[in-house]
Predict the 3D structure of the following.
Amino acid sequence: SEADSDLQALRARMETLAGKRIGVDIDTGEARTEVASLEDQLRRLGAAHPNPTVRADTAAARAQLSELRAELDRLSADR
């Protein structure tokens, strides 16, 4: 379905982001922008889709992004 392909594309973006080293491959500002974009798209996809599995998948992905956001906050605080 379209939602499945959208979710798969968002997960691929998350994997790409996860593979980058903050401060080396990407700075914290760029990482925050990408996290915010992904969170917004996941929130909209989950809210618009009637399938509980899609909603659960988007919620799980948003939880992972929340962990990344917390890591970015820690890195920013250390500077």
User: Anything to note?
Assistant: The chain has a mean pLDDT of 89. The two ends are 44 Å apart (CA to CA). The helical segments are 2-18, 28-48, 52-78.
